[in-house]
Amino acid sequence: MDDIPPYPPIDPTTFDLIVIGTGLPESIIAAAASTASKSVLHLDPNPFYGSHFSSLPLADLPSFLSSHSTSPSPPHSPSSDDPNEFSLLEFATRPLYSSIDISTFSPNLLDQHSRKFNLDVAGPRVLFCADKSIELLLRTGTNQYMEFKSVDATFVGDNKGNLWSVPDSRAAIFKDKSLGLVEKNKLMRFFKLVQGHLAGEQDVKISEEDLQSPFVDFLNKMGLPPKIKSFILYAIAMADYDQEDTGVCRDLLKTKDGIDQLALYNASIGRFQNASGAFLYPIYGQGELSQAFCRRAAVKGCLYVLRMPVTALLVDKDTGCYKGVRLASGQDIFSQKLILDPTFKVTLPLGSSPPLPLKEKLPFFSLKDDKGKIARGICITKTSLKPDISNFLVVYPPRSLFPEQVTSIRLLQIASNLAVCLPGMFVLYISALCNDDDQGKKLIHAVMNTLLTVPLDSESNAAVQSETAEIGSAVQDETSESSSGGPSDSGEEKPTLLWSALYSQELTLGQVDFICSTPMPDGKLNYNDLIDTTFKIFQEIYPEEEFFPETSLENPEVDGDASPET
Amino acid sequence: MHGRPRKAPKPEDEAASSAKAQKLRALQTQFFTFHHNKIYTKEAVELSAKLLEINPESYTAWNYRKLAVEHYLNLPDCNPDSIKSVLDDELRVVENALRQNFKSYGAWHHRKWVLSKGHSSIDNELRLLDKFQKADSRNFHAWNYRRYVAESMKRSEQDELKYAEDMIYTNFSNYSAWHNRSVLLSALFEKKAGGFLLKEKVLPEEYEFIHQAIFTDPDDQSGWFYHLWLLDQTVTTDSPLLASSWPGHGSDVLLVGDRCYNGSAFSPFSALHSDSGSFPIVLYFNQPVGGVNSSTVTVECGFNKNEDLFWKPLSASNSQTARVWVAHLKVPSSDLHSTVEVSVGHSKGIISTRGFVYSHPSMFSFKVHVQPMERDSSQVSVAENISLREENFKVYGTQSEESIIDSFDQLIIKNGHETTASNWRFEALAKEIECFRELLSLVDCKIGKLTLARLLKAYDAMSYPFANKLVHSEEVLELYSDLMKLDPTHYQFYKDEHSIVLLQKVTSSKESLLQHCFQYKDSASSAICDPICLRLNNLSLSRMGAFEKLLWVQMLDLSHNELQSIEGLEAMQLLSCLSLRNNKLRSLTALEPLRKLKSLRILDISYNQIGDQSIDTTSSIGSRNSKMNQKLL
Hints:
The structure holds two protein chains of two kinds. By secondary structure, chain A is an alpha+beta fold. Chain A has helices spanning 24-35, 60-67, 107-112, 132-140, 170-175, 181-198, 208-212, 215-221, 226-236, 255-268, 287-299, 356-359, 437-451, 461-481, 528-541, 558-562, and strands at residues 14-20, 40-43, 55-56, 86-93, 97-104, 119-120, 127-128, 148-151, 153-157, 163-165, 279-282, 303-305, 310-316, 322-327, 332-340, 344-346, 373-381, 392-396, 409-415, 426-434, 497-506, 516-517. In chain A, strands 1, 2, 4, 12, 13, 14, 15, 16 and 22 form a nine-stranded mixed sheet that branches. In chain A, strands 5-21-17-20-19-18-9-10 form an eight-stranded mixed sheet, sandwiched between helices. In chain A, strands 7-11-8 form a three-stranded antiparallel sheet. In chain A, helix 1 packs across helix 15 (528-541), helix 8 crosses helix 10 and helix 13 (437-451) packs across helix 14 (461-481). Chain A starts with 13 loop residues before the first strand and ends with a helix. In chain B, strand 6 and strand 7 (322-330) form a beta hairpin. In chain B, helix 10 packs parallel to helix 15 (423-442) and helix 16 (446-467) packs antiparallel against helix 17 (473-486). Chain B is α/β, with parallel strands linked by helices. Chains A and B meet through helix 5 and helix 6 of A and helix 10 and helix 15 of B. Chain B: It catalyses: geranylgeranyl diphosphate + L-cysteinyl-[protein] = S-geranylgeranyl-L-cysteinyl-[protein] + diphosphate. Chain B: It comes from Gossypium darwinii. Chain B: Belongs to the protein prenyltransferase subunit alpha family. Chain B: InterPro entries: Leu-rich_rpt (IPR001611), LRR_dom_sf (IPR032675), Prenyl_trans_a (IPR002088). Chain B: Its EC number is 2.5.1.60.
């Protein structure tokens, strides 16, 4: 924060809305407010767009992670006795990442080409072809700033390194080699039941009682075998927690929600003619999404200032009402509303309580109760995990890797044709929900050990090896006893790890703020929940405004443009 | 292209279509002027192109263009370049027309015609087809044309098979693709191309493949069609076989002048009254064949020259192929005891309608005993007195059961040579049966039931020569009864199948057949002995079948059934007395098979529905068959 280049003062000094941070939710709000003819100032202390949703060059990722891993720097002495009519509330940052573990096994190769990489900080992420983010992109015309490619397949992995393709459509069921005839029949009948239910056919209606019951109970009632249940729950409905162990399951999926997920998945397949699978991935990485919405906002008049930290909040001395912010440049900017990146927190003077008018606004839309953490991993390899296919998703359902695994682990492989890495390389994003850092590491390592060869000569390798030893041994034992069978790529060498970054990300806010804070990247695969929350925040600050009204549509033929390039 | 709901036209659409019609009429008038005056100028030809672009169904315009092409090709200054440009023009016109209507017969036909002229790039056609078939994957015109193009460019069946497979993987509800697969495989079977030499290798894989489709979506019809084709490939033996004959091998035929035979040593199954000095030899094949004559079938006996025998096909149509062939052997009117040997297929020439040669020569022999006629007995009066009344029948006695049992077995030709070759067929069928039992345990599915019934029936038919019984007939009958209830639209079809299985069951064993054999005993008759009547009455039959087991029958009671047709009855050459009373025969046309029954003397067709419907003017049988005596009670 010392080498901030001198900025010309911002003019004007009063805005309708100030947004701090350029993560996806902030960018969407900035775009929505600009569209609603509000004057918006969008600030980011970083020199790039996207904040915690960005895609970064390889060399920049570790420093970004570590800059958000430490406790806030001790605040400057509070100068609350400001001569004017405001009191100053100091900003501090909340540590978001922990247990950062970077391993380099091929320093030369990667260092020289750092800028050829666009690594997602909040990976793995995909867009369902029919999900809310796509709808939003199309509705706002933001899709014109982006290009997508199809993620070609979904697999379910097991502890032997096999990847089983997920029979997610009629054609896929027909083609599937791992399901028996009876299983195929049962699965297709279940899909038809769901389709009939969604189409409102009377004779196939799923009862209200069933809809309110746990999805897993409904699947049992339908007589679906364990393998298919696992496909549906974790690889199609994308359930996070073990649905069959109510003791550990924090998010038991209801049939109604499960059916909605299936409907989303089903609507996603074949929506765009040149996208074969259900998912899309943006060329140049997920960070493009935030940037595209920022461009959308800028077109509508939003003012952008990057590399501009904010130091304090200006509050009316008498009423305690928010008035504006003080920038690192020393300038004070005023606005009626403020939206904050979730890592910022406001230090209240000791012993004081939040000013009353703000306290009432305790945001109902802040993240749900304590949800623990999410462990993330980024690996770079030179070989695809599966020959002949480069972009795909792998789901490891709970208990598929080791008995204590209570959450799904998701892995997304993205190849260089999406401009995220050097040609011929592959980026693997891995994530799993966890209670603490150790559990998270164990989950990520379990996947890495199953799929990758981790070289021995590395700086931080020792840590990886020792940690993986315990779970690795359990996993490897099973591997050796039944390594045959299944369409495994046995006989083929496991891809060798070139570089990896493992870290845990907070999912909680720690404390509920009295300022509107946007959500941080969640543990989901897509952005649906984040967009819902973002919409609620927008409604909260501008209850009378429409969120991207239909008339704002600039490009009426967006549908054609939306189809991904292939 | 499929499943698009029809929308009512909007007013502006209607206006547009009437404007289009007007334009079309104007074009058409102009076009006909050119056509009738044989004007093939550039303008005239272009006008026809314009017409076809709007209306690709205009056959006359396509024909006009063909004439125009011929005209240009016959010009004296014609060179390869100009030919190519003329033909390329045609292809372009067709392509435009196809864009307008994918399913235009005229356009596809024209394209084929242009291509047949040569000079055009066939690779280009394949590319165009790929595009068309992507847009409408089930269009059978495109698939037909594809077969034509593939053949023209000598593209290998394997490559085309791969293409069809890819199409199936994209969407297996594609009857055209499955059909193409069956066509290609048939071609490969025929060619015995490498790897496709043996059906027994390929068919199990194909079954495995189609199961994936059927189990995934049993409601989809395309898979079932392909399965039916596979079943046919499994069951049908290529080369035709002799299924049964009359007289049977090793039997004794007794020919008597009057209605009675003397001496109980002879079975009533083979005693025959003959007043014409001849008796028929009937050959019953498992499929229609042609080429049965005195050189392919030789009959050796002491009293008749083989060359004099004339073999006649017995079929409803007057084609030269039939499952049943008959020849009449003349016998001297004096006492005779002689052996007759019949050899079938020792010289090649018997060919099935599908082009396979009868390749399993067989031979049977029987003995003929002639008792000369007694002049004074008056046959006509006897015949007139026969009355198929309930009180005139009695259950066939046990006294001569032994002889019946012997002669029953003699009726069937055993084809031992098929046993080893058929093993894979058995295995395939058994596997299919198991598979579809499983499917039916999962879902209630009409076509699944029908398929299981067909499989069980085929399995029984295949194992019958060895097992001598139809193991699954009860189950099959139940399945068809079930289907009649489940699927009333196709009731008659199931009913017919049910009838045939029931008849097969009845004729499958001596025991069951004996329950239907009765001795006719007319109290008024003075005859010493009593003929045997097969009574298949009151079985609610809608069709007749199992003829191969019934060639011996002389008296047949089919009364009180639901027969709408007696197709196939012509095989029963010995029939002299037939009751069709109380059935559902609707027209005289339905009685056509009776024309071929030369021994028929008594016929009861009372209480049918002849004439109830529309007037039947096709024929009147009575006048042709002078001996026939309609006896209306």
